[in-house]
Amino acid sequence: HRYLLPPASVAAKMRSLLPLIVAVAAIGNVAAISLDSESGKVLEEALHNDQLVISVKHIKPRRRVRTGVETLLAIDFPGSRQKIVMQLDRRSRRVVLETTENGRMRGQHFTVDSLTEDSIINSLVLSIQQNRPQPHIALYIDCEKQGVINTPRTLRDMFLTMRNPRLQVYRERRYTMEVDSDTTIERVLNRNNCPDTVQMQAIEAAAPTLNEIQRVRGDIPIIHDCDDNMLVKAINELVTIVKQLREEVETQRVETHKLRQLLEECDMCQPGERWT
């Protein structure tokens, strides 16, 4: 499914003024974004899929952003202390993803060498993989892959763990946003007129290994999620390994003791004696 969310009209912006004030108070430094109820409904339907793609088009530099950081998108899960915010940091040449998971913040970023304070981004594409065991997000800017970051807690996880699941989307209304589900990243790239070579790279990198995720991600290790079952399994494996090591050490100790006895009882091995 593909959903096209065009820039809002002046009337729509006026209607969203009150929710915008609430959004600023709830989310923080997001002065340029406003509540988009339609996008919230679309994303809420799409996030049940294993893969979804969010595209933002025609991003022009904001002249009034003194810090060089512009918030493009924020997804809030009201009442759950969970949210995700995507920011564009032109001065540091980064696309930043900040997630709050049960009140704890995780900051991750993509380094984009082509990003400058004056550059125009024709297409920014987030390919979101939510299936286990390696959920992740890949970023494409103007058809070029910028890397992959892992997401221990996915959008679907945040949504389904709520007592009364719901979400709110705040976004920069000057830009067109699209949400795709039940599709592939190569189809989205093709729609953005990306070369075939880029699409082939996207297919090959559809399921990155854990080593690749660790190599290309640029995260700030604020927290580390740990599943209870995985922790118990790891402890049991560690106990088994320690037990095996103890048995091996004991075996070596016994063998060393026997070897010492043999050397002590060996007449030919006694020092200071010669045999003719």
CATH architecture classification name of one domain = Sandwich
For the biggest sheet, the summary is: 7 strands, antiparallel
CATH class of one domain: Mainly Beta
- Intertermini distance: 95 Å
Q: Roughly how much helix do the residues carry, as a percent range?
A: 25-40%
Structural class: alpha+beta
Shape: elongated
Radius of gyration (Å): 28 Å
The number of helical segments is: 8
Unreliable stretches, pLDDT < 50, 5 or more residues? Answer: 8-31, 204-226
What fold name stands as the CATH topology of one domain? Jelly Rolls
Mean pLDDT, all residues: 76
How are the strands ordered across the major sheet? 2-11-4-5-6-7-13
What string gives the helices and strands in order? EHHEHEEEEEEEEHEEHHHEH
Strand content: 25-35%
What is the count of β-strands?
13
InterPro entries: TSP/COMP_CC
Organism: Cuerna arida
Keywords: Coiled coil, Signal
Protein name: Thrombospondin/cartilage oligomeric matrix protein coiled-coil domain-containing protein
